[in-house]
Amino acid sequence: MHEQIDRLLQSAELSIVEFDLHIRNEMKTFNRSLPFYVMSYHKIGEAILRVGEDVYKIKPGTVAIIPPNIEHDHYKETDEETVFLWCHFTYELGNVIDVLKLFNFPITFNLKNSEEFERVFMQFKEINEKDNFLSKTILTKAKSHEMLYLLLESIMNSKNDLFQQSQSECFLCMLTQFIKNPEKDLSLNDLSSNRFKELFGKSPIQVQRELKIDRAKKLLRSTQLSVTEIAHSLGFQGIPGFTRLFKSYVGISPSQFRTLNKR
Fold first, then answer.
1. What are the pLDDT digits (tens) for 173-212?
2. Among the four 38, 155, 245, 249, which has the fewest Cβ within 10 Å?
3. Taking the domain 181-260, which CATH number applies?
4. Per DSSP, which regions of 94-239 are E strands?
5. pTM of the model
6. How far is Cα of residue 228 from the mean position of the Cα atoms in its chain?
7. With b meaning 16 or more CB within 10 Å and e meaning fewer, what string describes 14-50?
8. pLDDT band per the 50, 70, 90 thresholds, residue 262
9. Where are the domains of the chain?
10. Per CATH, which fold does 2-158 belong to?
11. Strand pairing of 97-98 and 54-58?
């Protein structure tokens, strides 16, 4: 099972959408819902966090990670100074599957390695403030993964079931297969995976189609392969079916997409 998890994590792409360090005496965020993970680490001061029906008192040294599209409040009841580091991020397979849904992490937890996390976060922030494309291309990717590792490591130190034990070897193999070979036909067992839809909110066939479209967009941007060659590489028998599916997801034809995204 660990081998399958390792393959999935290696294939996933971590994207930090926004980040900063804030010093606040007032905090009033209510009924917010964002399409990415919201992470905040409180270094100084306290706050209140509501996620669904649950309310958490956030103290210094606490990390909160709120999943995408979950309504929440984040506010203060006093005017004491609060210092917190935050970022919005996604960690997805093929821009389609949220890989963190495979993990069983709490909404809030104490950060065991706080000094190291703060150091890495500030390094990430400083790199992004520099006008150096090489640093931003390489170092930001390294530092963002280091931050995620420190968060997951801290959770693992406090609980033994970080990974969802309900995921079977077969289920993980199916995910790995999707990522490596989205063009391959699905079996009847794959198509009837209720657990898949429960976890990701989409059926296996929906995810496979989205992965094909994501792969097609990458090939159209970065290769000289013809539209016909791309269609065949993704398991389509002809251009009409490929073009119809691509247009239903992207809104334009593969040829139009390539023209608009020429490098």
1. 767 777 777 777 766 455 556 667 777 788 888 888 898 9
2. 249
3. 1.10.10.60
4. 97-98, 108-110
5. 0.79
6. 31
7. bebeebeeeeeeebeeeeeebebbbbbbbbebebebe
8. confident
9. 2-158, 181-260
10. Jelly Rolls (2.60.120)
11. unpaired
